[in-house]
Design goal:
The protein is an alpha/beta fold. It is 40% helix and 13% strand. The chain contains 15 helices and 12 strands. The strands form 2 sheets. Strands 2-8-7-6-5-3-4 form a 7-stranded mixed β-sheet, sandwiched between helices. The longest helix is centred in the last third of the chain and has 36 residues. The chain starts with 18 loop residues before the first helix and ends with a helix. The mean pLDDT is 94.
Length: 498
C-alpha cells in the first residue's frame, strides 16, 4: 500500500518544541490564570457564572480542531474565554456543591504536580510523592483513631466506595479474585436510603447486582435506623444470601446526616460484617474537637473514605481510601505483579512502590495537595475552618427562621442548610397538597434566574415526598454573614413575583 508522503520532511536533530515560545506562552497564561481565574473569580463584584446556552457556547468557543495550530495570541484568547464562561467555584457565593472556595496552597501544589507530571506508582519515578502519600495517610488515620493501617489516594469518592465494596468482598470470599463470580455465593450488602449513589453503582460494576444492595430505612433526620439494619441482615440470611458488608454514611449528600456508627459497628461485629464509613463529606469534622462527636465510633470501621477536596478545600480531586488492616489486604486484593513496573530486584526498598495496590496504573500524587495545605495551616487552623463553617450554617439557620417566607426543612447537623422559599402569593394557602404542588415549581425558576443573572449558585432538589427545596452548602472561610444575608435577600428578590 502506498503511503501519502508528509507535507514536509522531519529533521530529527531539530526540536519540534520551541522552548522560548513555550516559556513566553506559559508566562502570559500564568498571568491570565492569576488575574481571571483567581483574583476576578473570587471577587464578589464579579459574576459566579456567565450563563450562555449550550448551542451558543459551542459557537463562542470555536471547538473545532484543525490541521494547523493557532497563534499564541489566539490561544490566550481561547484560555480567557474558557475562564470567562466557566462557573467560578472559588467565588464566595458559590454554594452549589460539596466543594468550593479558593485554597492557595493546594492550588500551588496542583500547579507543581502538572509541571512535574509525575505518576505515583513507583518510588523511582515519584520518590517525593510516594513518601508524602504515606505520611498524609498516616496522619489521616491517626485523626480517625487508628494506630496503623493502609490506604491510597484515588480518583474520587465514588472510586473509594468501590474500593471498599470490592475489598470487603475479597476479605469475605478471597477466591473471587482468581475464580470470579463462580466462586461466590449470593452476597448482599447494606446501606441507608440516604447513601451516595456510588454504592449502587459499585454493586452493578462489580457484578454483585443492585438487587443485592439492601436499602436500610432512615429516620426523619436522615440517619440509618440500626434496628432496621439488623432486621434486614436476618431477612437476607433467611433468604439464603450471605451478608458481607455495611456502608454507613458520615455526612449524607442532601441532609448532611451522620449515621450512628457505634450502634452500627455493634451489629457488624455481631454478624461478622465489614463496616465501611463513607465520610467523603463529613470526615473533616474529625479535625474539630467541638464536632468530631458526629463521627463517634469511626475508629471501629474496617475502611473509611474521606475527601479532603470537600470541607478541607484541597483542589479537586483529592480523595483518600483507608483500611484498618495490617495484613496487606489492599496489596493482596489488587496486586497483578506487573514485572515491567514492579520488579522485585530493584536497588531500593520496593515496599515504597505503591502502585500494585491500586486499580489505576497512572495516578496523580493528590496527597501533595493535602500535605502542602496542612503544612501551611496546621491542624489548628484546619479546625478553625471546620468550626467556622458550622457556625456560619447556624447563623444562616437563625436568619431563615426569622424571615417571613422562608421555612427550614430541619435543623442542620452539618453545613447542609435545607429550606424552602415561599413567595407572597402562596403564603396564605394552608399546608395542603396544593401548596406543595405549587411550591415544587418555585425553586427551579429561582435557580434559572440566579444562573442567568450570575449572582450566586445554590442547589435544589426534592427529597422523598418533599417538594423541591434549596440546599445551601457552606465551606469556604471567605464566606461572611453578609454573604448569608445576601443569599436570602437574592432568593427573595428573584422569587417574590412567583
Amino acid at each position: 500500500m502506498e503511503l501519502t508522503p508528509p507535507t514536509q520532511d522531519l529533521v530529527l536533530d531539530q526540536p519540534t518544541l520551541d522552548v522560548s515560545s513555550a516559556e513566553s506562552f506559559l508566562q502570559q497564561s500564568m498571568d491570565l490564570i492569576l488575574e481571571d481565574a483567581v483574583m476576578k473569580a473570587t471577587d464578589r463584584s464579579q459574576k459566579v457564572c456567565e450563563w450562555v446556552p449550550p448551542e451558543q457556547l459551542q459557537q463562542l468557543l470555536d471547538l473545532d480542531l484543525r490541521d494547523t495550530g493557532e497563534s499564541e495570541e489566539a490561544l490566550l484568547r481561547r484560555c480567557r474565554d474558557v475562564i470567562k464562561y466557566s462557573v467560578k467555584t472559588a467565588h464566595p457565593r458559590f454554594f452549589n456543591q460539596l466543594y468550593g472556595g479558593m485554597e492557595p496552597y493546594s492550588m500551588t501544589a496542583s500547579f507543581i504536580i502538572e509541571a512535574l507530571k509525575p505518576s505515583i506508582y513507583t518510588y523511582e519515578v515519584a520518590p517525593v510523592f510516594t513518601v508524602m502519600e504515606k505520611a498524609v495517610l498516616k496522619k489521616m488515620m491517626e485523626v480517625i483513631g487508628w494506630e496503623d493501617g493502609d490506604g491510597i489516594f484515588n480518583a474520587g469518592g465514588s472510586l473509594s466506595n468501590m474500593y471498599a465494596v470490592n475489598l470487603a468482598r475479597f476479605h469475605h470470599c478471597p477466591d473471587i479474585k482468581e475464580c470470579g463470580m463462580s466462586a461466590s455465593p449470593r452476597l448482599v450488602l447494606f446501606t441507608s436510603q440516604e447513601c451516595h449513589y456510588s454504592i449502587a453503582k459499585a454493586a452493578a460494576f462489580l457484578g454483585i447486582g443492585t438487587k443485592n444492595v439492601y436499602v436500610v430505612p432512615s429516620d426523619e433526620r436522615g440517619k440509618m435506623i440500626p434496628g432496621a439494619l439488623e432486621e434486614l441482615i436476618v431477612k437476607a440470611t433467611h433468604e439464603g444470601a450471605q451478608p458481607f458488608m455495611v456502608n454507613a454514611t458520615a455526612g449524607t449528600t442532601v441532609l448532611g446526616a451522620f449515621d450512628p456508627i457505634h450502634q452500627i459497628a455493634d451489629i457488624c461485629e455481631k454478624y461478622g460484617l465489614w463496616l465501611h464509613i463513607d465520610a467523603c463529606w463529613g470526615g473533616a469534622a474529625l479535625l474539630s474537637k467541638k464536632h468530631r462527636h458526629l463521627l463517634k465510633g469511626i475508629h471501629r470501621a474496617n475502611s473509611v473514605a474521606w475527601n479532603p477536596h470537600k470541607m478541607m478545600m484541597a483542589c479537586l480531586q483529592c480523595c483518600a481510601f483507608m483500611v484498618r488492616d495490617q495484613t496487606h489486604l489492599l496489596q493482596r486484593c489488587y496486586s497483578a505483579k506487573a514485572s515491567y513496573l514492579f520488579q522485585v530486584d530493584k536497588f531500593y526498598d520496593v515496599s515504597f512502590d505503591c502502585g500494585d495496590k491500586s486499580i489505576q496504573c497512572s495516578r496523580k500524587p493528590d496527597a501533595f495537595k493535602v500535605w502542602l495545605l496542612w503544612k501551611a495551616l496546621g491542624t489548628s487552623r484546619l479546625e478553625q475552618r471546620v468550626d467556622r463553617a458550622l457556625a456560619m450554617a447556624q447563623y444562616l439557620t437563625q436568619q431563615i427562621k426569622a424571615r417571613e417566607g422562608f421555612r427550614l426543612l430541619m435543623e442542620p447537623e452539618y453545613t447542609n442548610v435545607c429550606f424552602w422559599y415561599i413567595p407572597p402569593s402562596l403564603r396564605q394557602l394552608p399546608d395542603c397538597p396544593e401548596l406543595w404542588d405549587k411550591l415544587h415549581k418555585v425553586a427551579p425558576v429561582i435557580k434559572e434566574r440566579m444562573m442567568k443573572k450570575g449572582s450566586l449558585m445554590v442547589g435544589y432538589q426534592p427529597h422523598g415526598d418533599r417538594a423541591n427545596f434549596f440546599r445551601m452548602i457552606i465551606i469556604s472561610p471567605q464566606v461572611s454573614t453578609a454573604d448569608m444575608d445576601f443569599v436570602l435577600d437574592e432568593i427573595q428578590s428573584l422569587g417574590q413575583d412567583l
